[in-house]
Amino acid sequence: MTAERMIGDVVLELRDVQTYYGKIHALQGITAEVRAGEIVTLIGSNGAGKTTTLKTISGLLHPRSGSVHFEGRDVSRTSAHRLVRDGISHAPEGRRIFSRLTVLENLQMGGYTQSSKDVAANIEHVFELFPRLQERSGQKGGTLSGGEQQMLAIGRALMTRPKVLLLDEPSLGLSPILIQQIFGIIREINAQGTTILLVEQNASQALDVADRGYVLQTGRVILSDDAKVLAANDDVRRAYLGEI
Q1: Band (3; pLDDT cuts 50, 70, 90)
Q2: CB 3.0–4.6 Å: which of 65, 194, 229, 231 could bond 225 by disulfide?
Q3: How far, in Å, CA of 8 to CA of 11, rounded?
Q4: Can you give the residue ranges of every domain in the chain?
């Protein structure tokens, strides 16, 4: 925890969340919390429920039972676009940028809830974080490299100046150098005051950047603790860090 950051009250809370895909019971009683100013990570193998958790928070899915609370309000049934207005932004797995739109147009789409003045200011903020995007501002999203597309996905999610940023697999498919760059930017975004909930297959990187973590397995939280404690846990090291 760096001196520059202040960790505040709980801003996001999941209480015994049960989420289904049809008859498939994807989340089986997830309880977790994120405090203002934190980076919290969800780690686990494929199919553990990490992405489903983010989708449930952002309103793309709704829990069948249990509840999601944001700033003390139950938002379990709130629509995704309303949650964006309220301050939750989601950079999804696989980037999902608009491939036929330019970088600038993608960012403008991300700021659709904002005034023209705020959109301009937020684009400037994104370009400060990602100078490469400014260089590519007139280029179609689909022609960018994988790393540039990831920068664009994060930048688009930042266009509403969210209170909580949900990041799903930001390092997926990137080279080691780009992974370091992306995680450096994640730290910077957090240092500027944005709370982050991070899903990341690269558990070592995730625990290195996070304050706290939750380990998910088949839709349940099986372990939670400070990130450094989890990184030193023998079971976590063996299962998720590739160590014996």
Answers
A1: very low
A2: 229
A3: 8
A4: 1-87+164-174+197-244
What length does the chain have? 244
Q: How confident is the model at residue 2 (pLDDT cuts 50, 70, 90)?
A: very low
Nearest of 210, 225, 191 to residue 32 by alpha carbon: 225
Per DSSP, which regions of the chain are E strands?
10-21, 24-35, 39-43, 65-70, 73-74, 88-91, 164-168, 195-199, 212-217, 220-226
199 close to 53: Cβ distance less than 8 angstroms? yes
| Burial annotation 137-170 (CB, 10 A radius, 16+ → b, else e) | eeebbeebeebbbbbbbbbbbbbbbbbbbbbbbb
Determine the CATH number of domain 1-87+164-174+197-244.
3.40.50.300
Q: How far apart are CA 41 and CA 223, in angstroms?
A: 12
DSSP 8-class letter at 75: -
Name 214's bridge partners.
42, 224
Exposure letters 48-65 (e unless 16+ CB within 10 A, then b) = bbbbbbbbbbbbebbbee
The CA angle 135-190-129, to the nearest 5 degrees, is 10
91, HSE (Cβ side, Cα atoms, 13 Å): 32
Token match 């993608």: residue? 106
Distances (CA, A) of 152 to 10, 45, 197, 211, 243: 29, 26, 18, 25, 33
